[in-house]
Amino acid sequence: MSYLIEAKHLSKVFKDKESTVFKKKEIIAVDDVSLTINRGESVGIVGESGCGKSMLGKMLVGLTLPTKGSVNYDGNEISKLPYSEIKKLRPRLQPIFQDADSTLNPKFTVKKLIEEPFVINDISKSDANQRIDELLSYVNLGKELYGRYPHEISGGQRQRLGLARALSLKPDFIVADEPAASLDSSVQAQILQLLNQMKSNHGLGLVYVSHNLRIVSMMTEKVNVMYLGSFVETGDTQDVFDNPVHPYTKMLIGSVLTIDGDKRKLGKTKVFGEPPDPKNRATGCAFHPRCDCCTQICKEERPILKKVGDKNRFVACHNM
Ligand SMILES: Nc1ncnc2c1ncn2[C@@H]1O[C@H](COP(=O)(O)OP(=O)(O)OP(=O)(O)O)[C@@H](O)[C@H]1O
Ligand SMILES: [Mg+2]
Question: Is 29 touching ligand 1 by the criterion CB < 6 Å?
């Protein structure tokens, strides 16, 4: 079976500004991550701030090239394509970020911004107008904003405009990185419903990045828990949320008092310790300085993802 997206051994390393000729320092944002996404499948990525979620998402849609590893999209090795070729695939591969500002040309009016994807892709005016009306009602944006520039509308309106643009050409793969974070809950629900509809009606593949574990648990079928650039636990979302295995996953999920009402009461553990520094990764298991179950091997040897149990669960922990 061919995957919609197949990422193998992805790493992204930055040179730290504090580097000197004598001492080279690196920031390892993503560290040897592999994952696959099928058509019509949604996959969550969760983890603390700075663990590499956005960087991974950017590599999956070809916005950033990996330092190592490959991303294959529907037979195209996008991690090796020049920018001009990736641009041709852009209507099909869409990022949606919380900060929509960076994708909106400040010199364009709302009208021009909403029409731009259709113009670039030679879509007829009547088809475009019909789709634009549909999109504006989905994201709850009124045409009275048409004459304004991005800085003349609110942050939430800019975000909805960014979303409408991303969804305009019915992409088949979306990385949604905190797409609903600054929206009020009714619009948030509409957006999530829209993404779900696209998933079931158009076979959209979705990577959903969020700190909101409740939304991830509702929106995704599989989840990857990330710690300091690597996956520490992956599996079916329901299963991982009901029965987290890695000490970090337990800590992360335990920090949410209740998820989904009474069903998943895991609220005992608190997230403790400082989020780690990607410039100073601990030896062995990166999580060991914060782990309750740390033993000698955890300080020395890096654990790799291993299958645990009879379900689709992989965990990187020596104490399994
Ligand atoms: N251009 C860059 N140069 C150097 N370091 C970077 C660069 N971009 C990101 N980083 C670092 O890479 C790491 C991962 O960043 P990333 O944005 O992927 O985190 P994240 O998991 O999305 O965090 P958040 O939840 O806060 O959005 C961070 O330590 C960040 O500081
Ligand atoms: Mg991020």
Answer: yes
Which domain, by its residues, includes 162? Answer: 101-169
pLDDT tens readout for residues 215-255: 999 999 999 999 999 999 999 999 999 999 999 999 998 87
CA 54 to ligand 2 centroid distance, Å: 4
CB of residue 49 inside a 6 A radius of ligand 1: yes
272 and 201 in a single domain? The answer is: yes
pLDDT at 267 over 60: no
- Contact (Cβ atoms closer than 8 angstroms) between residue 24 and residue 86: no
Number of domains in the chain: 2
Which residues, in sequence order, are bridge partners of residue 93? 173
Confirm or reject: Cβ of 67 under 6 Å from ligand 1. Answer: no
Mean of the pLDDT values across residues 3-12? 96
Residue 214: CB atoms within 10 Å: 14
Residue 159 in contact with residue 98, Cβ under 8 Å? yes
First to last CA, the chain: 31
pLDDT at res. 265: 46
Residue with the larger pLDDT of the pair 86 and 40 = 40
Token pair 């390393």 is found at: 13
Tokens of 90: 């852009």
CATH code of the domain covering residue 210: 3.40.50.300
Nearest alpha carbon to residue 299 among 288, 291, 290: 288
Residue-wise pLDDT for 67-90, tens only, equals 999 999 988 899 888 888 888 888
- Is the CB–ligand 1 distance for residue 45 below 6 Å? no
Pocket probe for ligand 1: among 27, 61, 213, the residue whose CB has the most ligand atoms within 8 Å is 27
Query: Pick from 226, 187, 198, 223: which is nearest to 55 by CA?
Result: 226
Which is more confident, 185 or 229?
Answer: 229
